[in-house]
Amino acid sequence: MADQYFINYIALLIFVITGLVFVPFVVTLNRLVAPRNPHPEKLVPYECGMDPIGDRWSNVHVRYYVYALLFLIFDVETVFIFPWAVYFKALGLFGFIEMMTFIAILILGLIYAWKKGVLKWV
């Protein structure tokens, strides 16, 4: 019985050993093979084809962070809805009520964000 229990972990052990061997091998191979041609122009921060002018630090409006958080919230919602939809019949009425409560809370949050003007991109 104990032998059968540990047989299930052989694949995991193989992956761990492969990772512990493969990662250092690839990093070492990169250091040996990769060309090194340092040039001052390569060390300059680059964005959108424009030369960087001014200070490296710039202020970003909090609106962009809130917008990203709202996106993540609704993205996570889809991650929860998919397994629920797969087992919809098995969960029955209780599962349906739970998901509708979850979606209602998220919709209330979306309405709140909309009323506060968070979703305006101007």
What does this protein look like?
This protein has 122 residues and is mainly α. It has a single domain, classed as Up-down Bundle (Methane Monooxygenase Hydroxylase, Chain G, domain 1), CATH 1.20.58.1610. It is built from 4 helices and no strands. Helix 3 runs antiparallel to helix 4. The longest helix is centred in the C-terminal third of the chain and has 29 residues. The mean pLDDT is 83.
Would you summarize the structure shown here?
The chain is mainly alpha-helical and 122 residues long. The protein contains 4 helices and no strands. The mean pLDDT is 83.
Per-chain topology:
Layout: H1 2-7, H2 10-33, H3 62-86, H4 88-116
Helix pairs in contact: 3-4
Notable traits:
122 residues; Methane Monooxygenase Hydroxylase, Chain G, domain 1; mainly alpha
Using the coordinates above, name the CATH class: Mainly Alpha
What structural class do the secondary elements suggest? mainly alpha
Quote the CATH topology. Answer: Methane Monooxygenase Hydroxylase, Chain G, domain 1
CATH-scheme architecture: Up-down Bundle
